Amino acid sequence: MTDVIDREDESNSAPVGVSDARLQELVDQARGEGLQLTGEGGLLAKLTKLVVESALEGEMDD
Q1: pLDDT confidence of 44, banded at 50, 70, 90?
Q2: Within 13 Å and on the Cβ side, how many CA atoms surround 52?
Q3: What's the pLDDT at 58?
Q4: Contact predicate 20/14, CB 8 Å
Q5: pTM of the predicted model, to two decimals?
Q6: Are 31 and 37 within 8 A, CB to CB?
Q7: 7 DSSP assignment
Q8: Burial class of 49 by CB neighbour count within 10 A (0 to 12, 13 to 18, 19+)
């Protein structure tokens, strides 16, 4: 049970190299350009799509 909790904690944190400041820059840039943060076509949807596609590519390379 502890392993599951530890893995969840690790998966919820940004990896090394992606700082909170950089993530905040993305949010600020999106807002500045009038992009919604949530909803269809919003920043969250775009980031989610990118992360899922990257993860799938990584799985297929292994």
Answers
A1: very high
A2: 6
A3: 85
A4: yes
A5: 0.62
A6: yes
A7: H
A8: exposed
**Which tokens sit at 35?**
């992009």
Mean pLDDT for the stretch of residues 15-39: 90
Alpha carbon of 31 to those of 24, 26, 42, 48: distances in Å? 11, 9, 10, 17
**Cα–Cα separations (whole angstroms), residue 1 to 9, 13, 17, 40, 52:** 13, 19, 29, 36, 26
CA distances from 26 to 6, 10, 33, 45, 56 (A): 28, 22, 11, 13, 23
Residue 20, both tokens: 């909170």
Which residue in this structure is represented by tokens 């600020």?
Answer: 28
Residue 2 is predicted with a pLDDT of 47
Q: How far apart are the first and last CA of the chain?
A: 27
